[in-house]
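Annex B. Sample input.
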Amino acid sequence: MTLLIIFLCIVALILLITWGKVNPFLAFLVVSIVTGLLLGIPLNDIPQSVNKGIGDMLGSLVVVIVLGAMLGKLVADSGAAQRIASVLMKIFGVKYIQWALMLTGFIIGIPLFYNVGFVLIVPLIFSVAYQYKLPAVYIGLPMLASLSVTHGFLPPHPSPAALVVQFNANMGLTLIYGVIVAIPAVIIAGPVFSRSLKKIEAKPLESFRAAPMPEDQLPGTLNSLLSSLLPVLLLIVTTLLLFLLPGDGPLKTFLTFIGEPTIVMLITIIIATFSLGRRMGMSMQRIMGIYAEAVKDVAMVLLIVSGAGILKQVFVDSGVSTQIATALQGWNIPPLVLAWLIAAVIRLALGSATVAGLTTAGIIAPVTAQLHVDPSLMVLSIGAGSLFFSHVNDAGFWLFKEYFNVSLKDTFRSWSLMETIVSVVGLLGVLILHLFV
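Annex B, continued. Sample output.
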């Protein structure tokens, strides 16, 4: 009966968001309260579950998401992303233009949130397509594959970062594993797959061609790269040093402090304020205005994340985690595959990768210890599942269709299949890593 209630809870959540067009946060809130009542949580205790779910989820995450959004918008508005793209184009040339765009999308995608990154890089794709007279979908899909992978696999993006928190995974280690899994996924879904898309007719609208900033107003190459990638560099370096240094001591304590995601993002935003802001002639008032706009962009993401936290807390407080564990242990499906499958099904129904990932985590996280699976790999498995087959209920599907001005059929052939390849190859990469870690 308990598992049936959980199933009906998820179905209700899906129907409220897709059919009822209810805001995801409100849907999470309503469904969580009703589920708590059905699972036997006392009426007076449900508000405590709601508050604890929001607090536990956002307490360690809100700073990472907000500061990450600020960095991403500053990278875009300062011209750092444009500089990175132009340098890579010069290095790779026309012959390897797809690989240049793929690498650009990966680098830009790490600090940028998905919607910001999409709007930023699509004009770059169109500029290259117009300049070299190449099919827009053919050269653009590798770049978008990179952006999708960073969004689904790599912290500090909202869903992977939230999954790290829920599974008590190490964010630096998850980032390292994520990059290892992401590389083959991007290559196969990008340059390899897009060879079959050369004949797709795309007529990008002129209004989507962004006017580039003058060359002399762009930040330098080294400045652009270091400022954009500083969170990644700090996380990777501190994680590796903590593994290599023997014993305990002041240095290890300091590195542990520096390696905390909140501190990493704070250090980065302080440095970027001067390296990409003040150094490029921006006033503090303008920089703070950029940061304020960035927070508005992620406000709903924060609410959705907190809603998923409520649902997870209801599952925990109702004591159903033991029953879920028993049920899962009876399935002859490896835990990593099961987590991927649940996320993929919810993604198909809801469209949102973030909601799919967080909802799956709410079900799996309470029983992870009994499944004997590396939490970082569980984060990546769910992240891969949450990208599966984007279609008409996903905003990214329509962004691609409208920006590239292609038919629904061609959007399914290109965008939807690309997302599916990323998801499946990501799962295979996680399973291979599982053999060694």
